[in-house]
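seq as requested:
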Amino acid sequence: MVWVNLLPWRRAELKKRWSFWRLIVGGLLLILIAGLCCGQCQRWLNQQHVTTLALWNTALKSAVALWGQMQSASQQSTRLQRQLEQQQRRQRQWDLWLSFARTLGHDFPADVWLYTLRKTPLGLEVQGATRRIGALHQLRDGLRASPLFDAVRLQQVERVKRGEMTFTLQARLVVSGMPNDE
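struct tokens:
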């Protein structure tokens, strides 16, 4: 029998097997490490997305709150604008009344005496006395010329002793959106 030394062949075969298994284990380790790295990367990306979503959510809540404040400010601005317009109308009306009061003596004839001059919510009521009906018409025409009134009427005229007449005259305010303040 021939003795054959199989040891080098076995060693070569064993080396092949070990290198094959090392490649497999190394490949599995690489796959495992790549999977862990991908998992870590995905976890980091997810954390970034959660942070971004939280920031967007906070920004959205801030924008909604800001929108509400803007709407409230707009409503307040509109309300203040209306108040300003009302005050301006009131001021214009008071300016007209002041102008009327300053020129009041020019509109009254010399032979008309006043007992009462009263501002009402609807206009002006004048009570007085005169001796001539023409003076009453002159007074009425003078009041009609005022931009405050759109209608002036003699309500009551009564003859009293010695040719005197008492009268009540009502002047209605112009209705042009101006408030009629007392």
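Residues 110-173 form a domain with the Alpha-Beta Plaits fold (CATH 3.30.70.2830).
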